[in-house]
Each structure stands twice: as C-alpha cells, then as structure tokens.
C-alpha cells in the first residue's frame, strides 16, 4: 500500500501546481489570488475543502499543453457555517479556458448542487471556450451551454447561486454570473463582456479598451449588470461570506444521526488487510469494521447470499446501509433434489444469485426506512456458467439493478479493488447517480480484468492478421500481447478513471469516513420528495 499512497501524494502535489509555479507567480504579480488560494480564504477556518475532480484531465490534451484538474477547482466547503459547492476557474491553466473536460467537470459541480440543494459559489476567471477544441465543447447537450440551463433550473429550485468575477469573463460565459442570484466583481482585474475589444474591433470597427467595455465601474455604475464592486480578491470574498451568513437555514431530509464515534478497531490496519495480489482472498467485513463507528455492524441475512455483505452501521454518526462484496471464499448451502442441502463453494468478489436476491431486498428495506446506502465494490462480475444461468442469475441480477437504480435515498460508492463489467453497474457505478463515487489507490475499473481482456483482444487481432495472410510467430504474438496488456492496464488505473470523471476522487482509505460524512451532510439538505417505486421487479 505505501508505494500507492506515495504515488497519490506525488500526483496530488503536482496537480495542485495547476499551470506551474511561473503562472502562479504571474497571478500574484497582477494582485490576484490563485483559484486554490481563493477557496482557502473563502472557507471557514479549521474546516476542510472536499475536492471533487482533482485528477480530471490528467494525461489528456498533451498536444495542447495539458489541462491539469480540467482548469477548474470544484468541491464542497463551509462558508459562514453553510456547506456550499464551490467552482473556481484556474487562470494558471490556459487562462482558465474551457476544454471539453472542463465543461464536464463544471456540470458535475452543478449536479452536486442540484441533487443536494446546496448553495453554489462561482469564482469566475476564464478566457472562455478553448477555441482549438470548440467543436467538442460548444453545441451538444452536455457541452458549455448546459451550464446556463442549469443556472436557470437551480434558480427555479430556489438554490442560491453567488458569482464573483475575479478575472476575465467572456462571450457565452458572461451569462453564468449574470444568471446567478448575486453578481460581484473585483476592480482592475475583473471584466465581463459578450465580445472582447479585439472582437468588437473586428466586428463593428469600434476601438474600446477592456475596462470601458466591461470593467467594474461600467457594470456597477452604468449598465447595472453587476451588483457591487470590490477593490481586491479578499474584500470580494469577504462579501460572499456575508451573503452566506445572512442566508436562511435549509430544510433537511431528516436522516438519522447521533454523536460520532471512531471505529473501535484501528483504521490504519486496512493497509495490511488488503493483499497486494488482487486475486488473493480477504475478508471485506474486516475492512468495514475499521470504517464504521464503534466497529458496530448489524448484518442483514448474514448466512444467506454470503458473496455480498449487507448490514446497518453508522459513519461519523450517520446511519447507513452498507452493500459490499465479500472477497473471501464462502460456503453456501443449496437445495438438493430429494431433500436436504448441498454445500457450494462461492468465489470471493463474484455476485451469485442468492446474494443479488438478498441485496435487492436490503436496498428496498433501506428505502423503506430512509437510510442512505454505501456500496463498497471489489467485484469481478456476476457468476457465469450453465448452473448459474439455470438458477436464473440474469433474473436475480436484474432485480438488484432495478432496486438500486430506483432507490431514492442517497447512494455513495467506494471502489476498494476491482470494478468490472456488470458488477460495476449492479453496485451503483457512475451511471446510477451516486451522490459521490471515490476510488482507493487499489481500484481498477473496466469491462473485465487486464489479463482476460488482453487475451481476448490478442485472439481478435491475431485472427485479423492471419486473415490478411500475415504469418505470426510465437515471438510476435508475445510482443503483441505485451503491447495490448500495457495499454489496457493503463486504462484500468484509478487515475485514468478520475481523469475522465468516472470517479470523483482517488483517496487514501483513511479519508473514506470524511468523504462519506460530508456527502451525507450535503445529502441531508435535500428532502426526499420522490416515492420509491421499483416498477415490475423480477421474481
């Protein structure tokens, strides 16, 4: 585990630099704070910022100089005692320009605000769409324009939006702060206009400087577009704090919470409980016991469907229902013709029919009792083979997916190890709207494991080459296998998943409790109004 944690620390430090130290120094020379410095100043002292999407964009757009963290910092933080979503453009990365992944990350932040009815604060400092990639960020449903649609929907929902223009705010991006409830601007550095001086000159021949065209004084004194102006970043951020300080208390969902308690067992032992060899079995219950309050777990049907652990616990005082893969081999009793029971050995990390049946019922019970769900994935998929098919594994899997997908209580997903194929779906993968989805450094996500996929892809490629009349030697075949394996393994990485925002964060296992607790506090801001209904369920 230690090398994996060291890699997480190294990648985190590198990503925090954004566009690099020189660009950070340039921001300071202009009298501006960086995006992360603005967030640190804005949030309450002695509180943490729960970042979402730190590794977004990692390894992407190399031909364009890269886009660390997607050029925007997003997450949850407390401002004047209120939990808020914060979105801060990072002007050290291509002047805060919007890459395709930037749009996806901004929309994710707005989704968090919508799902949890949290105030959202925009710290705007962006040059607008990155023009060389405009065809990938402009016109489609989930492109740039979706943000303004979300602005309108958030407003209609009664969710507070506060925008501070702390640098450039150009073209279509100008609508974001002006569609917010409150719009503030920093004198000297903030500017907002539909078309900048160069475009105005090219379009209508008018010579005008940026300050006259869209500076703080013009928009607060003449156009009335902006509510108020402030001399520097700090005073503008102070104004946001005052706005939040006077905002009324939210409604709550009423999820159960008691005084938090640490686990009775040492969480650091998780590092030694997870085997280095991901094929090796281990006891997931031992991991759970080191994450929950007082290590106190109430199991649900512990002797039935043992390849999935289901039960009730508390995390930082919040009541949760946990659904987790059991990674050790278990003995399951199966009915025998003529009476009695036979013992079947079930492999760890595989979802069997009885486990899917149990988990579906457990999820329905949690919805009945208004208990949020936490899924812990280390799954290789559903059981296959004639015996499983005859036992109705598809039917049982469909039942689990139905109950999980229609669940109305908040869902949180933690990828501990493997997250392969339909197992990812059934245990609340990204497509099933978890309020938060995080991966441990030990995580892998793909349709199937690297070894299985590489061998399958090799067979396809070899057959294709032979069909073209090419001769493949054993050495050529081995070299091709290695190339395929290396490429596939790179895509299995949790950082690859985080770069594409398939997960919200890659975290140290010891940060799991904090992430779950903050997410549940956020979720408690959104009363459940939709009835739980699974429709036609397979029986």
TrEMBL record:
Keyword annotations: Ligase
First-tier enzyme category under EC: ligase
Record EC number: 6.4.1.4
GO molecular function annotation: methylcrotonoyl-CoA carboxylase activity
GO cellular component: methylcrotonoyl-CoA carboxylase complex
UniProt keyword Ligase, yes or no: yes
Pfam families from the UniProt entry: Carboxyl_trans (PF01039)
Annotated ranges, domain CoA carboxyltransferase N-terminal: 1-259
Protein name from the UniProt record: Methylcrotonoyl-CoA carboxylase
């Amino acid at each position: 585990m230690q090398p994996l944690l060291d890699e997480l620390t190294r990648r985190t430090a590198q990503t925090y630099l954004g566009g690099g130290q020189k660009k950070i120094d340039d921001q300071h020379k202009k009298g501006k704070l960086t995006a992360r410095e603005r967030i640190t100043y804005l949030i309450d002292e002695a509180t943490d910022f729960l970042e979402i999407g730190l590794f977004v964009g990692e390894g992407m757009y190399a031909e364009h100089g890269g886009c660390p963290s997607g050029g925007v910092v997003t997450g949850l933080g407390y401002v004047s005692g209120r939990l808020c979503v914060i979105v801060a453009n990072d002007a050290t990365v291509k002047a805060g320009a919007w890459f395709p992944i930037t749009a996806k990350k901004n929309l994710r932040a707005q989704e968090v605000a919508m799902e949890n009815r949290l105030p959202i604060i925009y710290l705007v400092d962006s040059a607008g769409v990155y023009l060389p990639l405009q065809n990938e960020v402009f016109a489609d449903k989930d492109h740039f324009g979706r943000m303004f649609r979300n602005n309108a929907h958030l407003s209609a929902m009664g969710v507070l939006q506060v925008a501070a223009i702390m640098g450039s705010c150009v073209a279509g991006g100008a609508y974001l702060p002006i569609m917010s409830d409150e719009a503030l601007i920093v004198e000297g550095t903030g500017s907002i206009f539909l078309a900048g001086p160069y475009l105005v000159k090219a379009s209508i021949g008018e010579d005008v400087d940026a300050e006259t065209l869209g500076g703080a004084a013009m928009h607060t004194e003449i156009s009335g577009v902006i509510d108020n102006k402030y001399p520097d970043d700090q005073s503008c951020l102070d104004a946001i704090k005052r706005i939040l300080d006077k905002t009324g208390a939210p409604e709550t969902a009423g999820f159960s919470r008691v005084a938090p308690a640490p686990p009775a067992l040492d969480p650091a032992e998780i590092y030694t409980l997870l085997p280095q060899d991901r094929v090796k079995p281990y006891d997931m219950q031992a991991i759970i016991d080191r994450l929950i309050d007082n290590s106190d777990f109430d199991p649900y049907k512990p002797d039935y469907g043992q390849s999935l652990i289901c039960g009730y616990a508390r995390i930082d005082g919040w009541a949760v229902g946990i659904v987790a893969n059991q990674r050790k081999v278990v003995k399951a009793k199966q009915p025998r013709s003529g009476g009695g029971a036979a013992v079947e050995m079930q492999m760890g990390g595989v979802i069997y029919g009885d486990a899917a049946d149990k988990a579906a019922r457990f999820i329905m019970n949690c919805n009945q009792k208004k208990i949020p769900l936490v899924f812990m994935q280390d799954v290789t998929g559903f059981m296959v083979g004639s015996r499983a098919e005859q036992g109705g594994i598809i039917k049982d899997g469909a039942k689990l997916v139905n109950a999980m997908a229609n669940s109305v209580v908040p869902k949180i997903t933690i990828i501990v190890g493997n997250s392969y194929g339909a197992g990812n779906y059934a245990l609340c993968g990204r497509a099933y709207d978890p309020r938060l989805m995080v991966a441990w450094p030990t995580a892998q996500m793909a349709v199937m494991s690297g070894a299985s996929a590489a061998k399958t892809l090799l067979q396809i490629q070899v057959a294709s080459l032979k069909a073209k009349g090419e001769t493949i030697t054993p050495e050529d075949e081995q070299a091709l296998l290695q190339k395929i394996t290396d490429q596939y393994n790179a895509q299995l990485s949790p950082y690859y998943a985080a770069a594409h925002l398939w997960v919200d964060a890659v975290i140290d296992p010891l940060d799991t409790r904090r992430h779950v607790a903050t997410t549940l506090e956020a979720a408690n801001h959104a009363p459940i109004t939709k009835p739980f209904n699974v429709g036609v369920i397979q029986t």
